[in-house]
Write a structure and sequence with these properties.
This protein is of the alpha+beta class. It contains five helices and five strands; from the N terminus they run αβαβαααβββ. Strand 3 and strand 4 form a beta hairpin.
């Protein structure tokens, strides 16, 4: 007999499953180096759209670790001024434009701090429109 006041669980999609299927990308090890003590993941859209540089961006001293470090550093800076579980901040990236030129672009990032699969705190970084 189910004693849950909300009834039977119809479907659940765990953080672990999201990490396994690539919807989330675990960046916890680099986050620890930056001083963040909780597990951190970024969505595939943020990672592949902004953190992972194109070949042309790489030719101009852009690399994945440096961009991720920028995202994490700005998270830390803004988290010191925020008290809730949701935070919005901005990060500048050198991005390849459709015409092949490079241009500095400011992108919003949304950070959500909440319970993971085991109710321990986790941080998820994503595009502002993502849930």
């Amino acid at each position: 007999m189910n004693n849950d006041i909300f009834g039977d669980n119809i479907y659940s999609y765990t953080r672990k499953q999201a990490l396994e299927d690539g919807t989330l990308i675990d960046v916890t090890e680099i986050a620890k180096e930056a001083g963040i003590k909780y597990p951190v993941a970024v969505t595939a859209e943020l990672y592949h759209g902004y953190i992972e540089p194109t070949e042309k961006e790489q030719e101009h001293a852009q690399d994945c670790d440096g961009r991720l470090w920028d995202v994490l550093t700005m998270f830390i800076f803004n988290a010191k001024k925020t008290s809730g579980p949701l935070m919005h901040y901005k990060v500048s990236f050198v991005k390849e434009q459709p015409d092949g030129t490079l241009k500095s672009e400011t992108q919003g990032v949304k950070a959500v701090i909440g319970p993971g699969d085991d109710a321990d705190p986790v941080i998820t970084l994503m595009m502002p429109h993502e849930d």
